[in-house]
Amino acid sequence: MNYHQILNIILFHKNVIIKITGLSIVLIFLILFFVYPISYESAVTVLPPEKNSQMGGLSSLLGGNGDISNLITGGIGGGSSQLFVEILKSRTAAEYVIKKHNLINFYNADDMYEAVKKLDNNVNIEISKEGIIRLDVNVSTHIFPLFSDERKNVRKLSADLSNSFIEALDNINRNKLTSKAKQAREYIEGQIIITKGMLDSVETCLMMFQKTNKTISLPEQVKAAIDAAAKIKAEIATTEIELGMEQSNLKDDNRTLIALRSKLEQLREQYNKMEMGSQDYLVSFKEVPQLGRDLASLLREVKIQNEVYLLLQQQYYKEKIQENRDLPTIEVLDEAIPPQNPTGPRVIFSSVLAGVFVFILISLIIIYSEQKKLKK
Question: From CA 173, how far away is CA 330, in angstroms rounded?
């Protein structure tokens, strides 16, 4: 059968084809307009998170430039936009939204797992090259939407769900940051208790020593040496703490561990020079008379514990403020608002497209039937 024969068959049966196609278009139009559920989407956009450039490390606290939470969390600050996207896709975020809006009933789901699955199928998340996140949730009415007031509620729900996902993101992110600050605060709290006990003990020993031996002060050179030794010893203590914490997270050949070990070794060597005597220092502790040496030792220990205690106290209150602050961590560019126009169904376009499909299908059926007649 050639092209002309096919065209003649179509023209011969054009009335039937047109009638069936027309009726199909009208039927599909009526179904889409009156019966088919109407869908709405409302988008919310979020700015990319700011990056935190703070460096971690307990040793940086001596200069007041860092937080101990950076050490515990590895110096990780604000995450990337991709991290935010993964949080939005998580089951935790979906469950937050479902519980807030009682979507188990809305989706007629049997349980939370089924509701999460249905919600995930309706969530659209995009991320631009600039890192801006766009999220919308497709929400549909039930059948026969024109005969109920459901459309108004669904429009509002589409915006509420999008905004609730951002609330979930903010809540998860804020809780994560709070837990980091809590971990840092609890660690510092433990160290403060230990250091305070040691400080009280050595202060008592100093007081008893001075009372027993009637000694009150030392020469200025020895005092200067004690101050210098106390600072070095305090730095040794903080470096040891930092090294101990990093060892649980890093391999032995890690550059950070190697650098910390090298730094600790140099500090100990410097402290030993001060203890044993060296041409680098005017007064060494071994050159001080025995009574003065005992007093110097006690004063030095008090100074060391006091330095560490003050350092930990300062950082403790920083972390306590961080833990208890309630600031939003997510910056919303545009909140979702109830949409005026539905996103689906596209009634006219879908009806015309269906009509074209029906036209082609009916034409093929007629051509096939005519071909069978010719063969007979």
Answer: 8
